[in-house]
Structures are given as structure tokens and as C-alpha cells.
Write a structure and sequence with these properties.
21 strands, eight-stranded mixed beta barrel
């Protein structure tokens, strides 16, 4: 019986280990739908390549907007930082440009601000990685944009990161200072810590015999009740403390001699103004949004007004980092996550107002945990992209609470 139970447990463990799919998400599913939908929207994200060699560049461009529907339960957005998310340090961020300005650090943002970003990455570690642009907002966390797999192949020359220092010397940041002081100083401090740890474990089994240790008094050096800590222990700890102080002082003297020219740590905050947007010709209001759980269908009733001089069409619908375009088939072009149908068909004429019914399969939305049917906050935010006859787009932010249909 025991053998059968053991065999069943081992078999179950094996099935779990070898049948589990590879994980490539980066935690965005753990964020609540209202947070991802109502804070930052992404669109027009493109990757310049899918396969590069070590040392070669890949560029990520796109647009992120701090939505007007920023939740009142969160502090107002003040500072943000645009970066990438990948499994480990597989890439080097070589350059970061936001609205035409270099943005090496965080910058001030505003509600409703539109930020066009360009990230230049360099392949560092061979492998295949799922990479996302990210928009981290203070007090709200990191919002993750659309992702793509990028394959980094091995280069015969490997990877190097040459940088010219202030004194004119060129060093490779991949190995500069790695032997000493990084590894050397770490080994010395590790040895010192192990000496302290083993002193209290080997001669005095304080850990393996806690039942006995807890009964002994402390600092009794003689008599019938000999304590746990003796004068010999005090001397040993004094020596270890002295060695620690000498190591720290020696390290301070060495760095002062080896690096005479120093630049203090700097934190520069600057404001990047919102990207210039085309003249507004489209306005929209979401009257109702429903989700049929049985049919897995999302339906939006949108009242769209065209204030322009030419007809306009609904070009795309954006939810957080997902994009949907008009269509009826299951196949979608690159960078698109799904399709939708609009009724009544046809454009919205200049100067006219039209109620549009937008219907889409909710499979992709539910898979990405963006349908808030089981949460306290059921607000859904959609950015509607309207385009006129001159191919100019307006991005209109709309929001409404979700009405689930259970039958």
C-alpha cells in the first residue's frame, strides 16, 4: 500500500513538472483589471527585429498615455519611468528617448499626457525572451505594454559593453571591476561571516541543540553553572570585529586612492511635455458595455460624434496593452490581438452623431484577465481610435461599468 502511494505521488509530481507549459508572462495578470485598464494605455508598439545577434540592436517604439480615467483611489501620477521587462538581464538598454528627449531616468508626467517612446536595446545573453515595454508610475506600480518574443543568437565575439570613463580610459563594463573589488571584497566578507557563523555552530552546537542551549545562562564563566558565552568567546568576537573594521577601513583607503576623481550620485527630475496631438474632431461616450459569459462576447454601445470636415471611421479599440481592429476572421495582423464588428456599418459623416454597437469575442480579454466580472471595481476603460479621410487619428478615452450577462 505504501509503495503504491509513493508511486502515485512520484507519478503525479512527474506529470506536473514535465507537462507544465513554459512561463513567459511578467506578472501583469496579477494586477487587477481596473488598474491595468484605467491607468496607462499602450498602442502602436512595434519591434524592429525578432532575431538579433549578441551586440546587435533592436528598437522598440510605441505610445503610452496616462489616461484621464486615472483612479481616484490612487495618488495622482507625478513621476514615471519607461523601461523594458524581460526574463533576467538578457538585454542592455542603450538609449531611451521620450517625445524626442533623452530620458535616462524618471520624469514628471501628467494625467492625459501622451508619451511616444523609443527604446534601443542590445542583445546580451543568447536565448529566446518575451520582452515588453513598461511604464512604471510612482505609487501605482509598473504597467506592462505589448510583448514580443526576441531571439538572441550567439556571436563569435561574445558580448562587450565598452564605455569611456571620465579620465579618457575605455573599459568593458561587462568585466570591469568584477574580479576586484566586486568578487574579491565579497569573498573576504563572506569568509569573515563564515568564521563568525562556524564559531557558534561547530565548537558550540547552539543550533543543533537548541533544547539544551535555551537552558544555559549567558556570560557565566565558572562555578557549577557554566554559561554559554565564555571569556574565550568574547576574545574571538573582538578579533572578528577588529578584522571587520580593518577590512572596511582598508577598503575605504583603497577606493580613495584608486578612484581619485568621483562624481556624486545625481537625481535629475525634469518634465517631458505631452506629445502634440492632432486637432480634435472625434468625441465619444460609452453608454453601456456588457459581457456575455456564456457566449464570451463583449458588446459596447458607443455614441460617436464627428466634429471634423470629413467622414471618420472607428479604426481600432485599445484595452490596456491589447489592440483590436475591424474584421470577421480569427487571423489577425502582427501587433493586433483580436477583431471586432461594428453596426450599423459605414462611416460617421462630418457633423453627424452616430450610435455604434461594437461586438468582439471576449476570449482574448478574459485570457488576459481584463474582464472584471468577479471584482469589486467593474469599470472598463477603452481607448477608441477614430480616423478621418486624411488618415489622421484621434484617440478617445471612454469608461463605463461592466454589466455581466450570466444566462
Amino acid at each position: 500500500m505504501r509503495r503504491r502511494l509513493l508511486f502515485a505521488l512520484l507519478l503525479g509530481l512527474g506529470l506536473v513538472i514535465f507537462s507544465a507549459p513554459a512561463a513567459f508572462a511578467h506578472g501583469e495578470h496579477s494586477q487587477e483589471p481596473w488598474l491595468r485598464l484605467s491607468t496607462v494605455g499602450f498602442w502602436n508598439t512595434t519591434f524592429s527585429a525578432q532575431t538579433i545577434q549578441q551586440g546587435q540592436e533592436v528598437t522598440i517604439t510605441g505610445t503610452a498615455k496616462v489616461l484621464e480615467t486615472w483612479p481616484k483611489t490612487l495618488p495622482d501620477p507625478e513621476t514615471a519611468f519607461i523601461n523594458i521587462e524581460s526574463p533576467g538581464p538578457a538585454f542592455l538598454v542603450k538609449d531611451r528617448v521620450v517625445n524626442g528627449r533623452a530620458a535616462p531616468a524618471s520624469f514628471y508626467v501628467e494625467r492625459g499626457g501622451v508619451y511616444n517612446y523609443k527604446l534601443t536595446l542590445v542583445g546580451r545573453v543568447p536565448g529566446t525572451y518575451h520582452v515588453h515595454p513598461t511604464f512604471a508610475v510612482r505609487s501605482a506600480g509598473t504597467l506592462i505594454g505589448p510583448g514580443q518574443f526576441i531571439r538572441v543568437t550567439k556571436s563569435a565575439n561574445g558580448f562587450s559593453n565598452p564605455v569611456q570613463l571620465y579620465n579618457g580610459k575605455t573599459v568593458n563594463l561587462e568585466s570591469y571591476g568584477l574580479g576586484w573589488p566586486v568578487m574579491g571584497f565579497s569573498v573576504l566578507t563572506f569568509i569573515l561571516g563564515m568564521v563568525w557563523l562556524l564559531w557558534w555552530i561547530v565548537p558550540k552546537p547552539t543550533v543543533s541543540r537548541l533544547a539544551v542551549t535555551s537552558q544555559l545562562s549567558v556570560n557565566d564563566d565558572g562555578g557549577d553553572a557554566v554559561g554559554l558565552v565564555t571569556k574565550r568567546d568574547h576574545r574571538a568576537m573582538d578579533i572578528i570585529m577588529l578584522a571587520t573594521v580593518l577590512l572596511l577601513v582598508g577598503g575605504w583607503i583603497w577606493q580613495a586612492t584608486a578612484f581619485k576623481t568621483k562624481i556624486p550620485q545625481q537625481v535629475d527630475r525634469f518634465r517631458i511635455e505631452s506629445a502634440t496631438q492632432p486637432a480634435t474632431f472625434a468625441t465619444a461616450t460609452m453608454n453601456k458595455i456588457t459581457y456575455d459569459r456564456k457566449a464570451r462576447t463583449l458588446t459596447m454601445d458607443v455614441q460617436a460624434a464627428n466634429q471634423g470636415k470629413t467622414a471618420m471611421d472607428l479604426r481600432a479599440v485599445h484595452f490596456a496593452n491589447l489592440a483590436f481592429v475591424p474584421g470577421t476572421g480569427s487571423a489577425t495582423p502582427p501587433g493586433v490581438d483580436g477583431t471586432y464588428q461594428v453596426s450599423p456599418a459605414g462611416s460617421v459623416d462630418a457633423g453627424a452623431t452616430k450610435v455604434l454597437t461594437v461586438t468582439m469575442k471576449g476570449t482574448t480579454l478574459s485570457f488576459n484577465d481584463l474582464v472584471p466580472t468577479g471584482t469589486a471595481n467593474t469599470n472598463m476603460t477603452a481607448v477608441l481610435e477614430f480616423a478621418d479621410q486624411g488618415n489622421t487619428s484621434n484617440f478617445v478615452t471612454t469608461q463605463q461599468f461592466l454589466t455581466p450577462v450570466f444566462d
